[in-house]
Amino acid sequence: MDSRFLIVLAASMTACAVTTLGIVVISQHKEWSRERSAYFVSFAAGVLITVSFMHIIPESLRRSERAPLFMLLGFLGLYLLNRFLNLYLCREYECREYAAGLVPMLGIGLHSLIDGAIYAITFNVSIFTGALAAIGMIFHEFPEGIITFVLLERGGFSSRRSVWYALLAAGLSTPLGAVITYPFMRTINQRTLGALLALSAGALVYVGATHLLPEVEEQERRYTILALAAGVLVGVLIIASKG
C-alpha cells in the first residue's frame, strides 16, 4: 500500500479522533450544555463566519475565478434545502425543529468532507506541506465536534442520535473525503479545489449568518455577544495556526 496514502489516512483519522473527543466531552455534560446552548450557538456562528470570510473565501478566490458562483450555489443550496424541509417534508411530519439541526449538520459535513480532500492534496504536494496544513486543520476539529452536537440536540434529536449524527457529519466525513479524493489526485487541479472550497464557504456562511445568529437574537440571553467574540477569536487563531 502507498506509504503516502497511509500518512493521509492517519492524519484524517487523527482529525476524526479529535472531533470525536469534542463530541464525547460535550455529550457527557448535557445539562450544562443545554443551559448554555445559546452561548454555544453564538460561539459557533463566530467561528464559522470568521473562518469562512478570512480563510476559506480568500483561498477559493485565489484558486478559481469561478469561486463567487460556487459560493452562491453553496449558500442557495442550503437555503433551498431548508425551505424544502420546512415547507414540504416538515409540514407532513412535524419536523421543523429537526430541520433546524439537520441543515447546519449538512453544512458542517460538507466542509469536513472537503477538509479530507485537502489532506489528500496537501500531503501529495509534500509531507511538510501536508503536516503544516494538518496542524492547523486539526486545531478546529474539537470545537467543530462540540458545535455539531449542540446544534443537533437543540434541533430536537436525542442525545444518542446527536452523538452519532455529529460523528458522521463532522468526524467520519473527513477520512471519507481523504479516501475518496486520493485516487483522483492527478485530476484535481487548483481550480477544482477552489470551487469546492467556495461551495463549502457559501454553505458555512449560510449556517452562521442566517441560521445561527437569528436564533441567538431570539433568545435575548446576556453575554452572547461575548460568546460571539470568543468564536471570532478562535476563528482567527485557527487561521493564524495555518499561516
How would you explain this protein's 3D organization?
The chain has helices at residues 3-27, 30-35, 37-63, 67-93, 96-125, 127-139, 141-154, 159-181, 190-219, 224-242. With 243 residues, it is an all-alpha fold. The protein has one domain (3-242). It is globular and about 50 Å long.
Unreliable sequence segments: none
**DSSP summary: helix tally:** 10
The share of residues in helices is over 70%
User: What is the multimeric organization of the chains shown?
Assistant: single chain
Pairing-aware structural class of the strands and helices? mainly alpha
Task: Note the main attributes of this structure.
single chain; 243 residues; mainly alpha; 10 helices; 0% strand
Short description:
The protein is mainly alpha-helical. It has helices at residues 3-27, 30-35, 37-63, 67-93, 96-125, 127-139, 141-154, 159-181, 190-219, 224-242.
Give the SSE map.
Elements: H1 3-27, H2 30-35, H3 37-63, H4 67-93, H5 96-125, H6 127-139, H7 141-154, H8 159-181, H9 190-219, H10 224-242
Helix pairs in contact: 1-5, 1-6, 1-7, 1-8, 3-7, 3-9, 3-10, 4-5, 4-9, 5-6, 5-7, 5-8, 5-9, 6-10, 7-8
